[in-house]
Amino acid sequence: MTLTLQIWRQRSANTPGSMQTYKLEGVNEHMSFLEMLDVLNAKLTKEGQDPVAFDHDCREGICGSCSMVIDGRPHGPRKGTTACQLHMRTYKDGDTITIEPWRAKAFPVIKDLVVDRTSFDRIVAAGGFVSVNTGVTVDANATPIGKKDADEAMDYAACIGCGACVAACPNASAMLFTGAKVGHLVKLPQGQVERRGRVLRMVEQMDREGFGACTNHRECSEACPKEISFDAIELLNREYMRAQVTGE
Predict the structure, then answer these.
(1) CA 210 from chain center: how many Å?
(2) How confident is the model at residue 190 (pLDDT cuts 50, 70, 90)?
(3) From residue 50, how far is each of 41, 46, 124, 242 by CA, in Å?
(4) Which 8-state DSSP code applies to residue 53?
(5) What is its EC number (predicted)?
(6) pLDDT exceeds 90 at position 92
């Protein structure tokens, strides 16, 4: 295939950026989206140009690094799919593809498609430690957990912290991410001692980072590559209200 790529190029957070157009020939339909960008960068390097900076690590849909907006949608057109799992057979010869970074105040651009997402790390860190009995090791199934709670905890824990929810939200809200991180601990017996204080600290840190408020657009759960349910936000709101009433 021959594709036209319109890519956001920005040298640093302190310099203005713009969309640049590149024509790329010989794209194989079996390539992943990131492999296609590798081919582009090899071409740019050979021509003496600066390659496009983009985040990646595992390339297996696990790490959440491959954060980019493709044709206006975080991670591209396929639901429940990260950018690294998107394959070029989704496109056809002659297509034009627009590629941009996450756009949010709390995710400043580092270079090109790479943004600083350490604000997520600070939200998680604000939650603090989890109390666990470190006495004699017990069998894995010794603490009964209802199947519904276990399933929901696993669903929330599937969040990879990629930031697609923030990129999709018109308010750049991090409520789905924070709700998922709070939710998977709420559903388990470990860490119940810190339950109230944890949610207060995490929400306060989320606000300090400059994320917007949730106004129920639900774009976040639609864009989430792990399909985290909007229920996570409802859970977060309930936990936060209870914590405000009862305190730590």
Answers:
(1) 16
(2) confident
(3) 8, 10, 35, 52
(4) P
(5) 1.3.5.1
(6) yes
**Residue ranges with strand state E in the chain:** 3-9, 18-24, 69-70, 73-74, 96-100, 109-111, 114-115
Q: Per-residue pLDDT averaged across 87-102, rounded?
A: 98
32/68 Cα distance (integer angstroms): 14
Q: Which residue has the tokens 């400043």?
A: 108
**Which of 207, 197, 162 is closest to 180 using CA atoms?**
162
* pLDDT for 80: 96
List phi, psi (to 5°) of 100: -135, 165
DSSP, residue by residue, 103-131: -BTTB-EEETTEE--HHHHHHHHHT----
CB-based contacts of 26: which residues, under 8 Å, 6+ apart? 1, 2, 39
> What is the separation of C-alpha 143 from the centre of its chain, rounded to a whole number of angstroms?
32
> What is the spatial distance between Cα 181 and Cα 177, in angstroms, rounded to a whole number?
6
Q: How many residues does the chain have?
A: 248
Helical (H) or strand (E) element with 240:
helix 231-246
